[in-house]
């Protein structure tokens, strides 16, 4: 639940970034048990090149501290959209931080903005957009791939930012963004194979003087 606000101490359910080196970071959800390949619940032990970490042992530790692995050590960092982009489970190609910063700048996204995005993909851009627009703004993100939609929704909830985002399964080239969004969006961003097919729908969603990038 740790993406919404910075906090000192790791709680059950938090996502933490296990930092081994600048080229080796892992996002871990702090939960005592996980399912193994046989679908059985087992102790959550995370394996790294420097040995194992009993994930439950992180509860109560301060973010930023050094933790022991069975053959070395690592730091446990507070998650940020930038670190999530570097560690998230890839379901698609993703947008990285240097491009994300330019997108946010050019779309003039700020706290309170209403933003429309498609496709959701792996949620890399979405996490950065949500940080920018919350708490009064809202992100409407669309993907036509059912699994990507459901995993993104689960991740936003697990990260404590579900209230700032609506995730919907929809082919935006064919069906647009829904009449409820007509004239509502401050900004629309399209990361699609054929973005031009969604441009007329994007135009319908954008407010006067709103911004579109594709
Ligand atoms: C490159 S990924 C987006 C990555 C995302 N920007 C990120 O940073 O994680 C493109 C996504 O667009 C989705 N997509 C492609 N065509 C679509 C369409 N017509 N309507 C909705 N989603 C579409 C794909 O399923 C895929 O998940």
Any chance you could write out the topology, listing elements then pairs?
Layout: E1 15-21, E2 24-29, E3 33-35, E4 41-43, E5 45-48, E6 51-54, E7 66-69, E8 72-77, H1 81-87, H2 97-107, E9 114-118, H3 124-133, E10 138-143, H4 146-158, E11 165-169, H5 172-175, E12 185-190, H6 199-205, E13 206-213
Parallel strand pairs: 9-10, 9-12, 10-11, 12-13
Antiparallel strand pairs: 1-2, 1-8, 3-4, 5-6, 7-8
Bound molecules: S-adenosylmethionine.
Residues 92-95, 118-119, 121-125, 142-145, 148, 171-173, 191-193 line the site of S-adenosylmethionine (SAM).
Describe the structure.
By secondary structure, this protein is α/β, with parallel strands linked by helices. The chain is 24% helix and 31% strand. It has 2 domains: 15-79, Vcp-like ATPase, Chain A, domain 2 (Roll), CATH 3.10.330.20; 84-213, Vaccinia Virus protein VP39 (Rossmann fold), CATH 3.40.50.150. It has 6 helices and 13 strands. The strands form 4 sheets. The chain has a 5-stranded parallel sheet. Strands 2-1-8-7 form a 4-stranded antiparallel sheet, covered by helices on one side. Strands 3-4 form a two-stranded antiparallel sheet. A hairpin with a 2-residue loop joins β7 and β8. The mean pLDDT is 96. The structure holds S-adenosylmethionine. S-adenosylmethionine is lined by residues 92-95, 118-119, 121-125, 142-145, 148, 171-173, 191-193.
């Amino acid at each position: 639940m740790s993406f919404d606000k910075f906090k000192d101490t790791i709680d059950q359910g938090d996502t933490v970034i296990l930092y081994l080196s600048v080229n080796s970071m892992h996002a871990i959800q702090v939960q005592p048990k996980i399912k193994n390949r046989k679908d059985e619940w087992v102790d959550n032990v995370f394996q790294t090149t420097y040995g194992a970490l009993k994930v439950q042992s992180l509860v109560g530790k301060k973010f930023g501290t050094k933790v022991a692995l069975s053959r070395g050590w690592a730091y446990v960092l507070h998650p940020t959209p930038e670190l999530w982009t570097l560690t998230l489970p890839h379901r698609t190609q993703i947008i990285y931080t240097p491009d994300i910063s330019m997108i946010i700048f050019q779309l003039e996204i700020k706290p309170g903005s209403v933003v429309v995005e498609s496709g959701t993909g792996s949620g890399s851009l979405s996490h950065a957009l949500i940080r920018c627009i919350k708490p009064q703004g809202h992100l409407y993100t669309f993907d036509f791939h059912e699994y990507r939609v459901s995993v993104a929704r689960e991740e936003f909830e697990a990260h404590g930012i579900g209230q700032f985002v609506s995730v919907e399964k929809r082919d935006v080239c064919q069906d647009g963004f829904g009449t409820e969004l007509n004239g509502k969006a401050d900004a629309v961003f399209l990361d699609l194979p054929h973005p031009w097919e969604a441009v007329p729908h994007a135009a319908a969603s954008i407010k006067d003087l709103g911004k579109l990038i594709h």
